[in-house]
Amino acid sequence: MRRTNLLVAILLISLTACFAEEAPQRNQSASEVTATCSALGGTFSGVEFNDDQGSYAVSLANNAAADTLQEIDGIGAKIAQRIIAARPFATLADLDSVSYVGAKILGGFRAHANTRAVLDWANSANRSELTAVCQIGNKTAEAIEAARPIDSLDDLLAVRNIGEETLKTLLGVPGFSCSTKGSVIDEWCGEDGAACYCSTGVEPPTGFVLDEDAASNWAEEAAGEWYFDNADYAWEEWCQGNYDESAYDEFDAMNFCERYVLERFIPAAITAAIALAGTSYADEDTAQQAVIDLVKDIFRAAAWMGDFEAALIDYLGAP
After folding, report:
1. Residue 292's pLDDT is what?
2. Mean pLDDT score of the chain, rounded to an integer?
3. Do 215 and 291 contact (CB within 8 A), yes or no?
4. Are strands 208-209 and 280-281 parallel, antiparallel or unpaired?
5. Residues 6+ apart with CB under 8 A from 305
6. Residue 21 has pLDDT above 50, yes or no
7. CB 91 within 8 A of CB 62
């Protein structure tokens, strides 16, 4: 439900997509069109396109196969064939003039432009192009590369360290964290030196800004690794001697200790790490190390431990 709602929301938001092709002349075939970022925005049948969305939509109308066109809301086989027969299109007004193409279908073209821009980046960008985008460090870039092919926004959301907050930032959603500067779409169009700018026009802190998704993922991983590296300490410090040893088998108590500690320590570590969200670090590695250090501190403090003996009696039964 979480991802479905996000997908719907993103597809309805007017973003920027610079995967455009130069507007074709009427004597050009679609295959002869050269990729640029053309100014083809405007309002057509009540649907507003910025220049980059318009450019991509015209490109899509000129080049997409029938089955791809039918992925767009409102287009079936007959309308797809009408669009193909009317090619090439120079503007969205030309597309809008095709029979049965109106507000619903044009809205579908705009949504498709937004989605494809991000998916093309996720599948095709090299390492430097991935990390050039605001909020993407080397570890997240590695996770994106390992997840390829990425066929949908849901697939992208499933990539480690990418969640709703990060995806919105990557897309450059106005009024969220950043404008289109530093977003996927801005970078893909080839602008050098793009950075992440807040929609207010104020530049945010430089470096890597930790979000809740990355903090949660890193904390969960670090807590599990740290516990298993220190399982003996946990048993000796918090469990052994803290129950009636004459009433329970030590092996049973040790097994329950591991389960009990993990079930309490990991959520406590995640909660503490999420509190760091929004903090700016020099880079992604520094941010991850800060989470790891915090997890270690949470483990040592053991404020999450609770009453082990009461939990043991509840689990194994009173002696």
Report:
1. 96
2. 76
3. yes
4. antiparallel
5. 238, 261, 264
6. no
7. no
- Mean pLDDT over residues 168-196, rounded? 44
| pLDDT score of 98 | 94
Task: Output the CA–CA distances (angstroms, integers) from residue 37 to 17, 28, 40, 112, 130, in the order listed.
Answer: 9, 18, 9, 17, 20
Rounded to an integer, what distance in angstroms lies between the CA atom of residue 283 and that of residue 205? 12
Q: Which two tokens stand for residue 106?
A: 């044009």
| 252 compared with 18, residue with greater pLDDT | 252
For residues 97 and 131, the answer to whether their CB atoms sit within 8 Å is: no
Tokens 């507003």, residue?
48
For the entire predicted model, the pTM comes to: 0.49
Encoding tokens for residue 158?
Answer: 């499933």
Provide the 10 A C-beta neighbour count for residue 222.
Answer: 24
The letter for the amino acid at 120 is D
Q: What is the DSSP string of 123-159?
A: HH--HHHHHTSTT--HHHHHHHHHH-S--SHHHHHTS
With beta carbons less than 8 A apart as the criterion, state whether 148 and 123 touch.
yes
Question: What SS3 state is found at 33?
Answer: coil
pLDDT given at position 204: 45
The whole-number pLDDT of residue 310 equals 94
Q: Which residues are CB-contacts of 103 (< 8 A; sequence separation ≥ 6)?
A: 45, 46, 47
Residue 249 CA to residue 315 CA, distance in Å, equals 13
